[in-house]
User: What shape does this take?
Amino acid sequence: EDQVTQSPEALRLQEGESSSLNCSYTVSGLRGLFWYRQDPGKGPEFLFTLYSAGEEKEKERLKATLTKKESFLHITAPKPEDSATYLCAVLGTDSWGKLQFGAGTQVVVTP
Amino acid sequence: DAGVTQSPTHLIKTRGQHVTLRCSPISGHKSVSWYQQVLGQGPQFIFQYYEKEERGRGNFPDRFSARQFPNYSSELNVNALLLGDSALYLCASSSLLAGANYEQYFGPGTRLTVT
Assistant: This one.
C-alpha cells in the first residue's frame, strides 16, 4: 500500500527565514507526486506536480524537488502570507485517481 | 474560468440521517474524485468516477455511495450517519485525457457536522 510521511508536523518561521519540508513516500510505481497548499477550512490548492527523480519545479518563493524516495518543498525568504498547511500526495501506477496524502506540515510565518 | 464547485458549504445532520453532497467539476474535466478530511489529517480517498463509471473505491463502508451524471457532475451520498462522519468532504476534478497530466483540482469542500 502507498504511504506518505511528512515532516515536521509543524514549523514556525520568522519572515525571511528559509526552510525545507520533507515528504517521504513508498509506492510500487509512481505516476506523480503532488504538492498542495491548504488554508484553514478551505480545499487544497494545487502547487506542483513532479513525475521523475531529479525533477524540480519553482513558483515564487517555493521550490519542489524529487528523489526516488522523498520530495522536498523549499520555502525561500517566506512571508506571512505563506502561512498554511502544505500537503504532499502520491499517485501510484495502479490507480488513475487515488491520491495518497500525508498528514501535512503546518507552517506559520511571523513578521 | 470557474473552478470546482461544491454544495452545500456547511451541513448539520443528526445521527442516523442521510446526506447528499454535490460537486460540479471544472469545464471539460470528465473525472471526479471524492475525499474525506478529518481535522488534522490529510484527505482520504473515497471514490473516483470517470465517464460516469466508478473507477476506484477507498476503504469506506457501504454507507458511502456516489454517482456521476451525464454532465459530469457528481453526488456523494452517506446513509445512517455516525458521529465519526463529521469531516470536510472534498471533491476534485481532473482531465484524464490521453497525454494529459494527472493533476487534481479541489473544490472548497462541504463541512459536515453530525450531532
Q: What stands out?
A: The interface with chain A takes residues 4, 6, 31, 33, 35, 40-45, 48, 50, 55-56, 58, 88, 90, 92, 94, 96, 101-109, 111 of chain B (CB under 8 Å). The first strand of chain B starts at residue 5 and ends at 7. The mean pLDDT of chain B is 94. Residues 53 and 68 of chain B are 7 Å apart (CA to CA).
